[in-house]
């Protein structure tokens, strides 16, 4: 799994460097189709980010919620089963 992550990161760095080195789109400008496609991708990212953030906030609330009346550590003597 770690090998795949490193390989993906390397591909993204190399591809990102090549895209920043290219000046053809800067001088010519982007077509309407490219702009609409990028806007569509941005909308997908935003709509996936909102439920993800909601789930993350709810997870943090549940993790740090205090439950009254329960001991933090069970001593193990009350609920021990006999073999």
Task: Tell me what you see in this structure.
With 83 residues, the chain is mostly helical. It has a domain of 37 residues. It is 69% helix and 0% strand. The radius of gyration is 25 Å and the shape is elongated.
Q: Uncertain runs with pLDDT below 50, 5 residues or more?
A: none
> Termini distance?
42 Å
Query: Which range best describes the helical content: under 10%, 10-25%, 25-40%, 40-55%, 55-70% or over 70%?
Result: 55-70%
3D shape:
elongated
Rg from alpha-carbon coordinates:
25 Å
Number of helices: 3
Counting DSSP E segments of at least 2 residues, the number of strands comes to: 0
Q: Please provide the ordered H/E string of secondary-structure elements.
A: HHH
**What does the average pLDDT come to?**
77
The largest sheet, given as strand count, sense and whether it forms a barrel, is: none
Structural class: mainly alpha
How much of the sequence is in beta strands?
under 5%
SSE blueprint and pairings:
Layout: H1 2-21, H2 24-28, H3 32-63
Annotation keywords:
mainly alpha; 3 helices; 69% helix
Offer a concise description of the structure.
The chain is mainly α. The chain has helices spanning 2-21, 24-28, 32-63.
């Amino acid at each position: 799994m770690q090998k795949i992550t490193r390989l993906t990161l390397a591909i993204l760095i190399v591809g990102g460097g090549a895209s920043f080195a290219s000046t053809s789109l800067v001088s010519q400008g982007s077509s309407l189709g490219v702009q609409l496609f990028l806007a569509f991708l941005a909308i997908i990212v935003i709509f996936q980010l909102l439920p993800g953030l909601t789930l993350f906030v709810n997870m943090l609330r549940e993790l740090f919620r205090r439950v009254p009346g329960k001991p933090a550590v069970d001593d193990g003597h009350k609920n021990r089963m006999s073999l």
